[in-house]
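Hi everyone,

Forwarding the result from last night's run.
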Amino acid sequence: MSRCNISPDSGSPVLNVRMVGRGEDAMCMEKRLSCAGRALGVRVKIDWRSDQYGEPVVYIGEKRLVDHLVQTTELEALLKPFIEHTNKET
């Protein structure tokens, strides 16, 4: 279960993601990404770019992480390997 109500520590690692999309699904994805990051102990910095399509697509670097709205717990599982890699770099 996600811990969205916990604020990330200002010293927490930052995970940069890029999201392309628009509308309500993209706004929900933005919130879910932030919640998933908090649950994993990182701050997620989202570079959000609007496009003509509605479905949110999330990238980490050049890798497409997800191409539709998913639950926060699924995002946690998808982000975890990237978080572990980020923590090793700090």
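Residues 19-26+36-66 form one domain.

Cheers,
N.
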